[in-house]
Amino acid sequence: MYRKEIKVLDCTVRDGGLMNKWLFSDDFVRAVYQACVTAGIDYMEIGYKSSESAFSRDEVGPWKFCDEADLRRIVGDNDTPLKLSAMADIGRIDPDDIPDARDSVLDMIRVACYIHQVDKAIVLAETCMEKGYEVSINLMAVSKVNEMELDEGLQDISKCKVPIVYIVDSFGSMYSQNILHLVQKYQKALPGKTLGIHAHNNMQLAMSNTITALTENCNMLDATLLGMGRGAGNCPMEILIAFLKNPKYRLLPLLDVIQNHIQPLQENIDWGYHIPYLITGALNEHPRSALKWMASEKKDDFVAFMKEMHDYE
Amino acid sequence: MYRKEIKVLDCTVRDGGLMNKWLFSDDFVRAVYQACVTAGIDYMEIGYKSSESAFSRDEVGPWKFCDEADLRRIVGDNDTPLKLSAMADIGRIDPDDIPDARDSVLDMIRVACYIHQVDKAIVLAETCMEKGYEVSINLMAVSKVNEMELDEGLQDISKCKVPIVYIVDSFGSMYSQNILHLVQKYQKALPGKTLGIHAHNNMQLAMSNTITALTENCNMLDATLLGMGRGAGNCPMEILIAFLKNPKYRLLPLLDVIQNHIQPLQENIDWGYHIPYLITGALNEHPRSALKWMASEKKDDFVAFMKEMHDYE
After folding, report:
1. A176 contact residues in B (CB cutoff 8 A)
2. Cα(A19)–Cα(A269) distance, integer angstroms
3. How far is A167 from chain B (nearest CA, A)?
4. pTM > 0.80
């Protein structure tokens, strides 16, 4: 599947950090960075851009903040073709805490928001554009949004300057048909904008949903090494790159970092396909109840979890 | 996805047995059987039907033979709506060792063959039909077959009496587009026959390929509990049943048997997504080299495996 417009974004550290509060060693983050550079990946999302007032450094690692000093300790001046991205959550970042792009090694800010925050997201995203960044709006949890609200949100976004908009399957609850429907809807509502896809693997469909989206002309593809990410994780980067067969990407450096850095983490961090994540995905629920269950002593009692979830309904 | 013609076949014991030489405890096989009955699954493939001369009982468990005495020890007279199936490999079963259907608890024989064995498969399959069984032909490793040979094989099958033909992605190397192409080809070449799909999960596409096939009117769907099967395993039954939302199926008994019998096996049997299986799948190779690698001390050295595989090419 060769199309020169396709860009692959690695969000291993950002989305994977949701599983360990971004308490990665510098060695780990540097290894992911080097692998992305060597493999020819287009973007690496290295964490969240948050204000110090929103989280405590005692609880979360540096990749929840993406301070320049921390970034540069890993990437220097990032004198490579790899672009660096950070995600900004509405309400957790004061725009004044985002430096001008010329003073940062970050190239891109992706603004994540829920449907009721679209207007705030547009303001923040346009502010980041004025500061000189590439910018996207990542509208989360869209599987829970009713179509009228979604149409209204997309209409607002269509009028703003932000050039990239992501379809985000936060709950891993979408089938190919849902992706198809949304990509076509977004395309119609957002003429001239680039679309992206961010999939989760609760029903082992993250890879195929990413293929469906790219076949429909989504050009920004999120993936993570060995699928590392919240809960069931994301579209595995190594499968995506093997599929794309694009000469600009190299698989071997990705296998190398998986072998030496990612897979060893799996001994302590239990991301990936597990039945509780399947259950929340199939029920179109936020994975938080499954994450809580998986962290408890009852983690292998799927039947009890299923019964509890049905009582919620 | 409700369509009354859809039948789901559990092949946990048959395909999973490829990972442990069918050395399952009776308790295990009985638990899978009971779960299939309670969950309303249509067929359970309990093993291979092989002749005693083809394999040694010292090396493989009873589900490599599916003798009546072994079967009845688990299922009695199987006085349930669940139909029982066994797979027959060309050259490993003497037709005389297959009793008449009226003397067996088996309801179905699925004849597995490679493209060069199609004519033998037709003879064996028609013999089984005469003995009173439901019968299918499962044409394996079709991703390696050139189209002219495949067209010829399908033409032969179209003329025979066997009513069910499976598309088998033995190497887990097919993308949705490949499945679509083959289902449409088989449909055109085999008018009036029912089609089935048997997928492997090397590229985490077994579930989505099964959806693609069923959307294109494949009505026999293979799946296994927690995806247990050779190498990367199969389409996970629990995800498929959650997708189908067909009132005749129940998810809870499947979660129960996974919790109490299947997941505990994973401590000793390492099926599922692993990088060596991704590599053979992406290269459209038989998984045997990956299986060998995974059984060796080098199992986590993906880079070495990738380099070795490329030297093969």
Report:
1. 176, 208, 211-212
2. 7
3. 19
4. yes
